Amino acid sequence: MDKEEKSPRRIEMLQEQKEIDKKHNELIRKSKEEIFEKYRQDLPNVLKSRMEEISTQIANQITLSRSDKREAISPALVYQWIKSPVFAPARCKYTAEDLLIILDNYTTMVAEINKTWTYVPTRENFCAFCGISIYQYNAWLRDTDRMERMNAMSQVELYIVDMQQSMAQTGETKEVTTIFRMKAEHGMIEAKAPQEITVKHDISTSQIQEQIEAIKKGKSLEPVEMKENSDGIFKQRGNKWV
To answer: How far apart are CA 206 and CA 44, in angstroms?
Structure first.
């Protein structure tokens, strides 16, 4: 058996199979890229059709929920409605103009869904709507070699962050959950209240008057040492004249 596996004919057959697989995979890759390019070139019309389908799905689900008293819309249903029918292959990229068209339709869709059910825009569901991976999203957001596309992605990011903050502030979503998500996904840092230090001078009115008179006579105070007590209050130690 070992001799058969190591035979020249066996090696040749394996090499031929590798070449067949390589050509097959290349054919699939090119087909996906062609499909994506056709989709991208007709993007405005394609998105218009998709938006009409989403509106129909929402209306149908509302009608269905009224008949059997189920929740009108759920995250799982929305994901099924909004996900792109075409996923962008690795070598294919949306232009800045493409992304702004997608963002315009995405914001319209979010507004439409929120008429019926609270729906929070996120990076993940934008990627589903757009047909890209979260890896592509993050890479394009930081790609300084493609400034126009990076600026378009910045607009997407600003919209998502602003909507999440606004919905948390108005009570549409839980503020704690939103803060956690924004820290994890958008690198937001929660502002901390400034710390205050109370300084209390342990000195009487007569001592203050003595200091004033001493200064008038040209004398000066030795350095004053401030010490914090157990209550967290700083007190003055030493008030001799030199």
So the answer is: 83
